Amino acid sequence: MSNKPLRIAQISDLHIKSPGQLAYGRVDTAKALERCVTALNKFRPAPDFVVISGDLVDTPTIEEYDHLKRLLAPIKLPFAGIPGNHDGREMMRAAFPQAGYAFPAGALNQAIELGELELILLDSHVPGKPHGELEAATLQWLDATLAASASRPALLFLHHPPFIAGIWHMDRQNLHNAGDLAEIVRRHPRVQLVATGHVHRATLTMFAGVACTICPAPNHAVDLDLDQLRAPSFKVEPPAFHLHTWYPGEGFGHVVTHQVPIGTFDGPHPFFGTDGKLL
Ligand SMILES: [Fe+2]
Q: What is the pTM assigned to this prediction?
């Protein structure tokens, strides 16, 4: 077994509009993605892979996917996307025809081998609906894919969180058949992380005995309204992405998730002077 850690950057909920259009009349999601791509390209050590966990575009339209592809063109890292509720399966399949989708039509699931890791991308899109659901064929495929190895650590990615995150209007549109997913995750201890999006803010819980995250967005965040105090709202909070690092080790190794803010910040500054004393 190699001693090399593997780094997977996760970006989520890009909501790309047609050129010149703002999301909700207010958020320049294209500029936000440009800044995100710059941050990904500059990050050292370079991530080994990038997963885009849904809502790549906003409406969806073919023009939006064309715009998205132009904005993603400068990425110097391999990447793959999964659909969210704002995506269109057929439009997305047409936009990224090189992707290794598991099915020739329908759900855009993918299993990607990355060194000693397996990344499993699950399509929770329900046509015409904001909530998520894993179709029977996707669940069967997931179970069979996980059963194909007992030793390779696997990270699962899907758009819709399979848990109540406390933000009422988002909880109504989470993964509705989370119990089906939990049953499969429990059967396969090689699953080391369940990473999601949809809520545009960093969130962590345990799901079926595994760490389960929501990735922040490069643009706007869903308002942190934990008691139905306000109508469904968003806020433009500091943008960020997630960096999941898998470290080899005993058993399945372990995964550490860092939140990486996007932007230019003061520093880094050394703690110590050339004399070795604290500055
Ligand atoms: Fe979403």
A: 0.97
